[in-house]
Every structure is written in structure tokens, then in C-alpha cells.
Specification:
By secondary structure, the protein is of the alpha+beta class. It has three helices and eleven strands. The strands form four sheets. Strands 4-6-7-8-9 form a five-stranded mixed β-sheet. Strands 1-2 form a two-stranded antiparallel sheet.
Length: about 180
């Protein structure tokens, strides 16, 4: 399936779609934790950057070599302009991916290497299951030089952006998965 065909395909609502390098398309239902975590981060972008800040969620961003990506949340430069129908990776100041049970390897390994390789200044992994966020900075050709882990429930995390604005993620308000009980 070509990239153009994929971008014009409507996939069922409530599913996350992954495109493997081997040409496989993987569709998994989005969990409530995943959805509510993205919503919480979007709320924090409104508080930090304003209602009209360019902060797309699950929207394709053009990367070179057909490595396009639709991150869970991206923060773009204020002056970002769409080329054709999408923004360019060059406009991205921060990308955040929310870990789901099916995406952990992709979010921690594949995306860290990819976003670093393309010089995304900040890559934030939000992991509801580990109840922590990993803030990657200083991109390199193979990932990031710096990675700092912050636990849920430890207050507000100010994240300075390359354009002088600050995105503040409220670690106290990130949703936590409900613990499964066996009824005993």
C-alpha cells in the first residue's frame, strides 16, 4: 500500500494504526488510559501555550524518506505552515507519544531513534503503566544524548521549547490506569 493510499484511507474510529517497515499495517483499539492521557496533555498545552497554539494530535507530519508520523501530540512553531496538506518535521518543537501495551517497544526504541535522527528538539514518552514520563533532549543521529525520567505525582514539569515558550506538563493530573482486581 502506498503512503498516499494509506493517508487517504479512513480507518475505524477508536483504533490506533501502526505502519511497520516490513509493510504490515497493525490496528489496535486505543485504550481509555491512552485517550485520557492525550486529553490531559492537550489541556496542559492550552494552559501553557494558549487555545490557538499549533498542537496537533494523531495528525500526520511529513518526515523525509516516507517515514511520516502521526504522533499522539506535537507542539509546532507558532509560524508553522502546512506544505501541501501537512506540517513538516522541521516545524516540530516537541513530540509526545503515550505508551500503550502494544506500542512500548515502538515508543521507547523506534521513535526515540527516529525523532532524534530528524533533530526533533524534545521527545516526551508518557507511560501510564510505569506512571512516569521520559524527557529526551539533545537529539543526535541515533537518538538523544539526555533522557530524564519524572514520576507521575511529582508536580508540574516545565519544558522549555526552542522558540522561548514553555510547555508545562502537570504530572499530578496525568490519569493512572485503574488497577485490576480479582474481586477478593
Amino acid at each position: 500500500m502506498s503512503v498516499d493510499a494509506i493517508t487517504h484511507t479512513e480507518f475505524p474510529a477508536g483504533y490506533v494504526v501502526f505502519f511497520g517497515a516490513d509493510g504490515k499495517i497493525i490496528m489496535t483499539p486505543q485504550s481509555e488510559e491512552h485517550s485520557s492521557t492525550i486529553k490531559s496533555m492537550q489541556y496542559d498545552t492550552i494552559l501553557s501555550l494558549g487555545r490557538h497554539a499549533k498542537t496537533p494530535s494523531d495528525v500526520y507530519i511529513d518526515f523525509p524518506a516516507d517515514e511520516n508520523s502521526a504522533p499522539d501530540l506535537a507542539i509546532l512553531r507558532e509560524d508553522a505552515r502546512k506544505e501541501s496538506k501537512r506540517y513538516s518535521f522541521e516545524d516540530v518543537l516537541l513530540i509526545s507519544e503515550v505508551v500503550s501495551t502494544s506500542s512500548a517497544r515502538k515508543d521507547y526504541d523506534d521513535c526515540t531513534a527516529k525523532y532524534g535522527r530528524y533533530g526533533i528538539p524534545i521527545y516526551l514518552i508518557v507511560d501510564p503503566y510505569a506512571q512516569e514520563v521520559v524527557l529526551h533532549t539533545q537529539p543526535t543521529g541515533s537518538g538523544y544524548i539526555a533522557a530524564h525520567t519524572h514520576a507521575y505525582g511529582t508536580g508540574k514539569l516545565p519544558i522549555p521549547l526552542a522558540d522561548g515558550r514553555t510547555f508545562t506538563l502537570d504530572l499530578d493530573e496525568l490519569p493512572r490506569p485503574e488497577l485490576e482486581t480479582d474481586g477478593h
